[in-house]
Design brief:
There is one protein chain. By secondary structure, the protein is an alpha/beta fold. The chain has a domain at 63-206: Aspartate Aminotransferase, domain 2. Helix content is 35%, strand content 18%. The protein has helices at residues 12-18, 20-33, 39-53, 64-74, 91-99, 118-124, 144-154, and strands spanning 57-61, 82-86, 103-107, 129-133, 157-161, 169-170, 173-174, 181-185, 199-203. The strands form 2 sheets. A 7-stranded mixed β-sheet has the order 1-9-8-5-4-2-3, with helices on both faces. It has a two-stranded antiparallel sheet with strand order 6-7. Helix 7 links the parallel strand 4 (129-133) and strand 5 (157-161). Helix 4 (64-74) runs parallel beside helix 5. It is globular and about 55 Å long. The structure holds pyridoxal-5'-phosphate.
């Protein structure tokens, strides 16, 4: 009689065990230098992750949710504004829009990719629409060509929710460089995880930090 085996959805310990000496040494080094907040390790990771994404720069913040909220605020999106996003995402996407006082408008997804359907976005555009927040769900990029084309035509900001899509490519280009800005999550269960959850909000042009 075959024995039943349970395969865990995520096994963080198994991943840790593979590179344990490297991780332990890095953590010990942070403790030895008391470099707990910001510091050279954060700066180095920001620079290296930006380089990996081929982005101009990256900024570390507290979480993917914070990255979304701060990026919306940086673009001046707030009360009275509408932000179109995917009807199929994690709650943080819509939560960040609400947190800045804007109104999340859900558009239907494409049945093949489960990503924001550009035709559905066009159908819910109004004069109050300020931004589009596509989600690269399950690591698969949204149709950024059509979304950026629409954004240009209607003067909209496009913020990529790349929380699940580290390293994904859209027509040979890394997600995180396709919209005006992008947000990643480093929650422990994500593609690229940290033991302390932090996130990156990044964009192609270097004007965001000053706003
Ligand atoms: C699509 C999506 N957006 C945003 C987030 C929020 O990221 P965090 O958990 O780091 O706040 C997540 C995390 O699950 C996510 O899957």
């Amino acid at each position: 009689m075959p024995t039943q085996q349970t395969v865990p959805l995520v096994d963080l310990y198994a991943q840790y065990a593979l590179i344990r000496p490297e991780i332990d040494a890095a953590i010990q080094s942070v403790i030895t230098r008391s470099a707990f907040i910001m510091g050279p390790d954060v700066r180095e990771f920001e620079a290296r992750f930006a380089e990996y994404c081929t982005a101009s720069f990256a900024i570390g913040v507290a979480s993917g949710t914070a990255a979304l909220e701060l990026t919306l605020r940086a673009y001046g999106i707030g009360a009275g504004d509408e932000v179109i996003t995917s009807a199929h995402t994690f709650i943080a996407t819509a939560e960040a829009i609400s947190a800045v006082g804007a109104h999340p408008v859900f558009a239907e997804i494409d049945a093949q990719t489960y990503n924001l359907d550009p035709d559905a976005v066009a159908a819910v555009l109004t004069p109050a629409t300020r931004a589009v927040l596509p989600v690269h769900i399950y690591g698969q990029p949204a149709d950024m060509d059509r979304l950026m084309h629409m954004a240009q035509a209607h003067d909209l900001t496009v913020i990529e929710d790349a929380a699940q899509a580290h390293g994904a490519l859209w027509r040979g280009r890394r997600v995180g460089t396709l919209g005006h800005a992008a947000c990643f999550s480093f929650y422990p269960g994500k593609n690229l995880a940290r033991m302390v959850t932090r996130a990156r909000s990044q964009r192609r042009t270097p004007t965001l930090p000053s706003r």
